[in-house]
Design brief:
The protein starts with a helix and ends in a 5-residue tail after the last strand. By secondary structure, it is of the alpha+beta class. The protein contains twelve helices and twelve strands.
Length: about 500
């Protein structure tokens, strides 16, 4: 086998390993997205059809309350206003009879009412939308011993639903297709060291083989064979150091170290996707639960209705904040967020933050100790966002009436921004993890204060992009002091 054939085999091997990992990781991420979309679509369908049927029955009852049964209703149907038709029938037709308990909650006040839906048979002469337009909802009620059929045309509502559903599915499909490309780029970037390692191993193998009988290349073959058995399900496997030749032990060590980094990165991404799915699943479940409560009891109970509406609005706002934070971190991970650098005086920005905070929080005492003038060359909006996150955390974990102090210092070319509170503090074993995504040191406290555990992760990303760092000093039940250290702007 000549050198060209060997090079071709090596390149093919590298491509197969990368393609296998990229495909499997992509499928896992797409599966999680599809599950989330399916849950949202089911919830939307339940709410939409519930509103349609409620509207049909409420309209039928309102018409009967206003006009009664028209005198000219005979065997022929009587066309009423608002898309309803009424006709007398010889006998009560077959249909679904709902339980009496449920009948009492519906607008149509007839405990023996029967309901059914009819659709025309398929005819090649008319279009699908025309078929949908002929779907009808029937309510059979008995008045003075005579059965009447009240029919509501569902066609208009269903056609609107079809267009809305197609639009929603198109948006979800475009999002999935966009995610494939983005996920592939991120995964390939993560696996790039593996490709480079395999290429290096192939080059070493060719070099050793060219040395002749003194080295038969068996060590390189062993390494290549071991690498070829590693895929996404076996990232925890390692190459045996003892079985490697002396001259290849350093390479085996390097390969194992690199596999450790890849495995840690992969596990971190899997954990992040799992945590994000969990955080999204919780508000969706709450919204679904309150929607069911509203459907069963809230129509006639103003207290229950208001409680459900408030809860749904609150969870929707939480989902909005969570999605915005996830998008921020995703753009940061993909390195697509650009910094808009400008020179500004730090004290002015701190005073603006405190002024805005006092408008929404009168329960704490805010004090500033500012060294002025101090200038930064940075993205002012991002720095403001990071400092606001620190202040919000202090507000969450500091009892009412206590003091929160914000200081700025200038020391040897560095600017220090300190946020100090008299709150509950952080346990020593948790301090090193507070900037991890979705990390909460105390789940019971997290439920009371809210938040997704992403705020400090966002603040860390912002400060690191500005070549800065954090210093955290905290004592349980005493308080926490968080210091941001950034390079000071001294002018040209």
């Amino acid at each position: 086998m000549n050198d060209t054939e060997k090079h071709h085999i090596g390149t093919s091997f590298i491509g197969k390993v990368r393609s296998s990992l990229v495909l499997k990781l992509n499928l896992q991420m797409l599966g999680m997205l599809l599950s989330a979309f399916m849950a949202v679509n089911i919830l939307i369908n339940i709410l939409y059809f519930g509103v349609i049927f409620w509207k049909a029955e409420e309209g039928a009852q309102n018409f009967m309350d206003t006009f009664g049964i028209p005198q000219n209703v005979v065997e022929e149907k009587y066309a009423a206003a608002g898309g309803y038709e009424i006709r007398k029938v010889e006998e009560s037709l077959k249909g679904l009879i709902l339980p009496e308990l449920l009948q009492e909650q519906l607008p149509l006040e007839a405990l023996d009412a029967k309901r059914n839906i009819t659709a025309p048979g398929f005819d090649s002469d008319i279009t699908l939308m025309e078929h949908i337009g002929q779907v009808a909802y029937h309510m059979i009620v008995t008045v003075d011993g005579v059965p009447y059929q009240v029919t509501y045309a569902l066609g208009t509502d269903l056609r609107l639903y079809v267009f809305l559903l197609l639009g929603l599915l198109a948006v979800e499909l475009l999002y999935l297709l966009g995610s494939i490309g983005k996920n592939t780029m991120v995964i390939r970037k993560t696996l790039k060291p593996l490709s480079e390692m395999a290429e290096t191993a192939r080059t070493l193998h060719e070099g050793v083989a060219s040395m002749g009988s003194a080295a038969d290349g068996s060590g390189i073959k062993y390494l290549a064979g071991a690498i070829s058995t590693i895929d996404v399900r076996q990232l925890d496997r390692r190459i045996s150091i003892e079985s490697s030749q002396n001259e290849l032990k350093d390479l085996a060590h390097a390969i194992n170290d690199m596999l450790n980094r890849i495995n840690q990165s992969y596990q971190s991404q899997v954990r992040f996707v799992s945590d994000a799915s969990h955080e999204l699943r919780t508000p969706i479940s709450v919204i679904q639960g309150y929607a069911g409560l509203l459907d069963r009891w809230g129509k006639f109970d103003e207290k229950t209705m208001q409680e459900s509406i408030d809860a749904i609005k609150s969870e929707t706002e939480n989902m909005k904040v969570l999605v915005e934070q996830l998008l921020f971190l995703a753009r940061g991970d993909n390195d697509t967020m650009q910094l808009h650098l400008e020179v500004f005086e730090l004290g002015d920005m701190i005073e603006e933050i405190i002024r805005e905070t006092r408008l929404i929080d009168s329960a704490h005492i805010f004090e500033t100790q500012l060294t002025r003038p101090v200038y930064l060359e940075a993205d002012q909006q991002l720095i403001k966002q990071a400092i606001r996150i620190l202040v919000d955390n202090s507000m969450k974990y500091t009892p009412s009436g206590e003091k929160i102090v914000i200081k700025t210092l200038s020391e040897e070319g560095w600017v220090k921004i300190q946020v100090q509170d008299n709150g509950i503090g952080i346990a020593p074993e948790d301090v090193s993890h507070i900037f991890d995504r979705f990390y909460r040191s105390d789940e019971s406290r997290a439920r009371k204060t809210g938040g997704s555990g992403l705020g400090l992760s966002i603040a860390k990303w912002i400060i690191q992009r500005h070549e800065g760092q954090f210093e955290v000093l905290s004592r349980v039940d005493i308080g926490t002091r968080t210091t941001v250290v950034l390079p000071e702007w001294k002018g040209d």
